[in-house]
Amino acid sequence: MPAPQPAQPSITAICPVCHAPILPTYYFCPNCGAKLSAAKPLSTSLLTQLWIYLFSIVLPAMAFLGIKYWPGMAYLRSPDWEKKQIGIVAIVLMVISTVVLTWWGIVWFEGFMSASTGGLMGGSSLGF
Prior knowledge:
By secondary structure, the protein is mainly alpha-helical.
């Protein structure tokens, strides 16, 4: 009696470039390497959400480095409501972080300026 063969996955699609049979789960054609889907599905795992939220909080401090890699917009543009909520939370966190960082910068600058000019203007012991 022959050994049972493992079940072969059903092939239901064809590559639009080389016409090779492909599986619907493929992102790239294994024959020619053509990109088959627009984007990899967005993850909604807890770890991914924490990463996006942390990145949104830290983003204003390093905006020149991180804006290109911020995933919040991809989640916000998603048609799936669960993923869209992740994007909304990320944007809210980024706005709050920006306001806090701006406020802290203004307070620090005013303190620095008053400390710098205080010694020059009112702290002179020469009587000028």
